[in-house]
Specification:
Layout: E1 7-11, E2 13-19, E3 22-29, H1 32-40, E4 44-48, H2 56-63, E5 68-71, H3 95-111, E6 115-118, H4 120-128, E7 132-134, H5 137-141, E8 154-160, H6 165-170, E9 173-178, E10 183-186, E11 191-196, E12 201-205, E13 212-215, H7 226-236
Parallel strand pairs: 1-4, 1-5, 5-6, 6-13
Antiparallel strand pairs: 2-3, 7-10, 8-9, 8-11, 11-12, 12-13
Keywords: Glutamine amidotransferase, Transferase
Protein name: Putative glutamine amidotransferase
GO molecular function: gamma-glutamyl-gamma-aminobutyrate hydrolase activity; transferase activity
């Protein structure tokens, strides 16, 4: 891999998109915030589409080409993967994407590849490690402040736990872009790294890893580049 411009893989959506007179077109895409922040940090973004029948061999072959990995946000994970029935508020599941991202997360851990999970990506990291997800946060916290407006990011403060690797990157507190109705409940192998004021877990990390963090918010949608800068720096090391 490049020693000056590391290649950062970003997992992708696979959804139909309406483009002009083409309606709808099956497409693979990521929000441009992911790619632009990787480029600004000095990395080369590589989009990873979900595929049929992903397995460990496929994941290892993908990671052979990468210096770091971002597991991006997206739809809810199928709760059967952590032994639960679906909540009535669950979104339509994406089985191919679930399989691909869980395989990639496990392979990245095996290789100690720098890994950043964003929103759904943090949940994928937890489920890949044998953890579980709270399927509808309003049932637990009594409000919809983590995604109050359909199709629009909200903001709220997050308190970063002292002594964590995330604290070394972000400091005591950050105001973050948020859009999620689920959250990580259990996360074997990871420690809690940040929290919202209502008690929702906002970040996890593996202190034994070279660089491995999951955040429940959407840094690609904000103005703070520090997580992407730190990821690309870790990839260079």
């Amino acid at each position: 891999m490049s020693v000056t411009r590391p290649v950062v893989g970003i997992t992708a959506y696979a959804e139909p998109i309406v483009r002009g007179v083409w309606q709808p077109v099956p497409s693979v895409f990521v929000a441009s915030g992911y790619t632009s922040k990787v480029v600004a940090a000095g990395g080369i973004p590589m989009v990873i589409p979900p595929v049929d029948a992903a397995d460990d061999d496929w994941a290892q072959a993908v990671l052979d080409r990468l210096d770091a990995l971002i597991i991006a946000g997206g739809a809810d994970i199928d709760p059967q993967l952590y032994g639960e029935a679906a909540h009535p508020a669950a979104q339509e599941f994406r089985p191919e994407r679930d399989a691909c991202e869980i395989a990639l997360a496990r392979a990245a851990v095996q290789r100690d590849l720098p890994l950043l999970g964003i929103c759904r990506g943090m949940q994928v990291m937890a489920v890949a490690a044998g953890g579980s997800v709270d399927q509808h946060l309003p049932d637990l916290v009594g409000h919809e402040g983590h995604s109050p407006t359909p199709g629009a990011f909200a903001e709220h403060p997050v308190v970063v736990r002292k002594g964590t690797g995330l604290h070394a990157i972000l400091g005591d507190e950050v105001v973050v872009p948020t859009y999620h109705h689920q959250g990580v409940r259990t996360h074997p192998g990871y420690v809690a790294a940040a929290d919202a004021s209502d008690g929702v877990l906002e970040a996890i990390e593996d202190p034994t890893a070279r660089w491995r963090f999951g955040v429940q918010w959407h840094p690609e949608a904000g103005d703070d580049p520090r997580l992407f800068d730190a990821l690309v720096h870790a990839a260079l090391r």
